[in-house]
Amino acid sequence: MANATAHDHTHDHHDDHDHKPKGFVNRWLYATNHKDIGTMYLVFSLIMFFVGGLMALFIRAE
Q1: Under a CB-based contact definition with an 8 Å cutoff, are residues 27 and 36 in contact?
Q2: Residue percentage of the chain with pLDDT more than 70
Q3: Rounded Cα gap, residues 47 and 62, in angstroms
Q4: Are 54 and 47 in contact (CB under 8 A)?
Q5: Which sequence spans correspond to the domains of the chain?
Q6: Taking a C-beta distance cutoff of 8 angstroms, is the pair 40, 28 a contact?
């Protein structure tokens, strides 16, 4: 039968290897996640839709 010896390791070990940038703005600026990129695309398209609508209103009011 094999003799198993228990090794007493006192390493500071952490299982959290999340190296993503912290913060909302940094997360979106340095995004490589397809879900974040899709959300940014959707938000940007809606913002540009409203900006274009406002510009059209200004042209019509002129």
Answers
A1: yes
A2: 68
A3: 23
A4: no
A5: 24-61
A6: yes
Cβ atoms of 30 and 40 within 8 Å: the answer is no
Q: What is the pTM of this model?
A: 0.57
Q: What angle do CA 16, 20, 26 make, to 5 degrees?
A: 150
Could you read off the pLDDT of 36-57 as tens digits, one per residue? 899 999 999 999 999 999 999 9
**Helix/strand/coil percentages in the chain, nearest 5:** 55, 0, 45
pLDDT at 44: 96
Q: Under a CB-based contact definition with an 8 Å cutoff, are residues 27 and 39 in contact?
A: no
Tokens of 36: 């974040």
The pLDDT score that the predictor gives to residue 56 is 97
